[in-house]
Give the backbone structure.
Amino acid sequence: MQLILHFQSQPVLAKQSLCFSYPFVKTKTSLPSNLFAPKSPIFTIPLSRYHQIQTHNPILCARKNKRRNGSQRLTRLLLQLMPAIVSNFKILPQPLDLVVEEFCSGDGSGGRKSLLLFLLYGVLVICGLGLLFGGDVESNVLFCGLGFGLSGVAMVQWLDKIGIFAIFFGGVLLSRLVDFCTNSEARDLGYAKKVFQQISQPSVYIWNSMIRGYSNSENPVESLIMYREMLQRGYLPDNFTFPFVLKSCSVIADYRYGKCVHNCIVKTGYGLEVYGSTCLLRMYASCADMESALKVFDIIPKWNVVAWTSLISGFVNNSRAIEAIKVFKDMELHNVQPNEITMVHVVVACARSRDIDTGKLVHSRIRQLGFDPFGSSFNFNVVLATALLDMGSVQQMAQKNLVTWNSMISAYNQYGWAEEAIDLFSDMRIAGFVPDQTTFLGVIGACAQLGALAFGRSLHSYVSKTSMCKDTTIGTALVDMYAKIGDAGSARRIFENLQKKDVMAWTSMIICLATHGHGMEALHIFRKMQEDASVIPDQITYIGVLSACSHIGLVEEGQRHFASMVNLYGIKPTADHYCCMVDLLSRAGRFDEAMRLLEEMPIQPNVAVWGALLNGCEIHENVDLADQVRRYITEMEPHGSGVYVLLSNIYARAGRWQEVNRVRELMKNRNIAKNLGHSSVEMELLSS
DNA sequence: CTAGGGTTAG
């Protein structure tokens, strides 16, 4: 079976034909199957801007055209095809010097025929046919076809120019090949590396291709290793090298390496290059050093949109949204026209700083600039739209992508509308979107809120069958979900199986144990966490630790942890921490200390803190203190019913019914209704 | 062959 493709829309190409034949694929099983199975089942070959061939398992048997004038076109075509073909077959080219040697050792004076033979042989060597498939007759035949076809074209073009021939294949083709397998859609960096290793003296361009490929890969560290090797072997990086290297530094946030690269940029004189310096800015911003980022900004030779936008995004991503907005205003003063990307960052800045007024101004500026995705049906920018959606200035979106769905699900979660979040999840699946890690983070969180046991478990089992099961964020969400559902055992198992445990993972486990009444175990986990030098407890960790202490009544231990939180880790205690401490002390009946702590508090005690104190008063029937607390509470703004109920319970217990009535009056006057308690349990229905 | 974009667990 043979398929001949004619290119008809382009007059010159119309005369050309390429044969794509399939015979060996379907009938012969002797061929290694992976040979014909590239990453995607459909193989797309870009022929020109207007032509694309989509085919399964193509084998090229290029045929030389009879008419000479078409050959140049076909050569170019083949040049475009070669990387695709060679990389599809995972053929390793031979080192250039080896090829050159082949040519030089031939009889230079020979006639045309022997020259042709040499050329043919050269191409075969380059394709490394014997190297990979020597034993297989069918594939040899096949590759002979390939080799012959290629050489046929090459012969016409380069018949008398052996020197050029060598450069042509050594320089251009290998560059194209490396480019193709590092940066095309069907890239394969493992193969790229092998090809690269065949090149004895890679040009800077090829180095750059490799570094770029790795910088966009899963392991950007590889690009840094590549870069180091480049320097060690005495190659001089150029202005293209630095952006790629710096991108890797940014992605993995390697501050020290980034600074070394900065040094190198300065030394090689590319420090004042627009691209390079903008990348430097981003690198410092990614490494959370905004001060250096600002210094770099100052030396950027031209403050264009990208430079400004990078600075804005730096502030946004370092939780300095207000400064980001300031920079944006500055940019407007400098009369630099913002683009959609700029506005995305500014919108995020408004959302993060909860600055609704500026948010409205920004939205109208977006309209003014003509970027508003909701202003007209064309020019719909999903990213900007999602950012606006997240800021809350949009209710409905007609066009959604994965991130939009995720954003909506998490927004519903934050409003506490867990059921709606789950509904949205099923809508999204009906709409044909494949949920990703962020989606699951949201839906698992919704299950945690709802206590949706069965659905939560099904999510868990789904996730464990994917690569997400190793992910720390997913694991943490699951730990929290099981904790909230009441299944501390499952939470524990997931936690133990986590390969990497970060602060959040440890913290969620500690809080889980503390809330399930396993205070000792929670503290044990905390000690294990402290043994791990790679994690530093933060304020939320200490909420768990302190509440664990308070559950088991370890006052001194709690006080020690509180002190080390402040002195060792420099964490400023929040109202929640004081709440824990007051709870700890007043449960133990140590009211003097509790009151002293309250007086020393540098922040205003909130209702929860008073509530904790009242809780202790109830346990120890300390009505006098409760009286004092009542005075504070009545001075405060009206709030939830909790403290009033506590107060009235305390008075009731002491038999002070008048006071009970006064508290109830107070509640009535302040229009506070007692919250209805509710809980839900999911039950399995057993049949027969 | 080069720089900047939305969602994200405790």
Summary: Confidence is low (pLDDT under 50) at residues 1-68, 102-113, 124-170 of chain A.
